[in-house]
Amino acid sequence: MASVIGKRVNGRTYYYLVESGRVDGRPRIVAQRYLGSAEDIVAALDGAGAVPASTRQLSFGDVAAVWATLERLQLARVVDEVVGRGRGRVSVGNYLALAVLHRATAPATSLAEWWANTAARRFVRPRPPADAVRDELFWRATARLTGAHLDRVEQAVAASVWRWLGPARPSTLTVDVPGFATYAETETAAATPTGLTVLVTRDGAIPLTWHAYRRDSPGLVPFGAVAERLATRHRAAVGETSGTLVFDASQHAQLDLDADQRFVGALPLGDHPELLARPASARTPVDPDRFAGLTALDTRASVFGVRRRVVLTHSARLHAAQARGLAQALSSATRQLDGLARALAEGRNRRPRDQLRTEIARITRVRWVDRVLTARLTGDSLDWRIDQAALARLGEEFFGKQLLVTNHDDWPVADVITAHRARYHLDSTFRMLNGGFVAAPTPGAHWTDQRIAVHTLVTMLTTAVTHLMRREADRAGLDLSVRELLEQLAQLGETVLRYPSTGGRPPTRHLLTSRDATQQQLFDLFGLAALAPR
């Protein structure tokens, strides 16, 4: 039963709409809603009370979807079972979950700034104290993580991902990303370039185990040996035995392609001119739905003395991008050559001939440019020309093409291409997650091996979470990259309306922004209604 009651506070009467009911046989107020003073009620009836005094925008969609995925993985609980709850106000598991949430949605900001402008405070449980969500406290809490802790966390999360994937689990790929991150240990010290070898699921490129290494290390372990170690570690964790090695054109020398190991790799285009010369009519569309504008020639060729399956692909998008890149490089080169030519013609050049020739060589020694642009220094004049026939041949024979080799003779062409592209998906995600973070002044000026290891763990956990999300979206019919997925979700904001105070705490109302069809599908897919304001 509903009724209106008044309460006297500091000599003024404030009214509430209350709902009464019986609890344990006795009448009790079971719900109440604040209405305001008599003047507030009159103003609301007249329409004046509907105007908020201020509004504020919080991020909601991306943080809610990532948090829902973290909850489904039970990341915080898995970590705390490994390292212990500890005595701090925020456990290490909760700090790592917050770090993943932060890295996925706002990697270029500080933890404190991000926390103050997100709706996560409303639904993250357990809710951390506001003053505990700071970068320095996160690093202090994770300083207790040893190498053994990090390995066990990695294995525990991999097992959780494996359970998520269910009985029809995909086979795995091992890929290498040499440009994982570069850290500045101090403002003056040399950078620490770091690469990463990762074992991922074939479906979705979801990381399961990994090995970080310094690219400038004199004792660098070959890619093939690292891949074997990761496969052994993964078998010990989940019992998986089926895996494929994915390598780039520069890595085949490190591998024994005659072994039993399954592989998909890239070959230098120039090694097989006979395939490049095949007409476009020899290629067929791969899968217009998954790979728009991609065609392929599936054939066999001699690779390192063995007859193997090779797939020559051509991407219309890559072709256009490479053509634009060459046009820009040619424009830059010809501008510089014109500047040298004017200086020579006007007698302003003071450099010896050898230095001029070195400068001309530097200008023209750019990928593709040196194939089509020639410059000639004669006396006090400099002439250059672009060979249009060579330019046309370049576009016809090289642009848009990749050459892949594999011993998976039973795989469809689309699966071979998907496996090879896993590296590019990982590289794209790493750049998105690490770009602003490793360049930030804190903790960039204090990188240690332990902090690099923790940073790597956070990055890989974030990659696993976002790639799981992308896989779920793909299965729902949404073909989105990780960046596109998070951008779509980030457009779902939460608006906080704050109304004028009538004494006491100002009343507020939380509303979600409108969403289009794709955003509504993502809203439903990740169950965001459960985390939306009520």
Task: Write structural notes for this entry.
The chain has 534 residues and is of the alpha+beta class. The chain is 43% helix and 25% strand. The chain has helices at 38-46, 61-73, 75-83, 92-105, 111-116, 120-123, 135-142, 147-165, 223-238, 273-276, 316-345, 353-364, 369-372, 388-397, 413-434, 441-444, 449-475, 482-490, 517-525; strands at residues 2-9, 12-23, 26-36, 54-59, 172-184, 191-201, 207-214, 243-247, 262-267, 284-285, 294-303, 306-315, 373-378, 381-386, 401-406, 493-498, 508-512. The strands form 4 sheets. It has a 9-stranded mixed beta sheet with strand order 7-6-5-8-9-15-12-11-10, with helices on both faces. The chain has a 3-stranded antiparallel beta sheet with strand order 1-2-3. Helix 4 packs across helix 17 and helix 8 packs parallel to helix 17 (449-475). The mean pLDDT is 88.
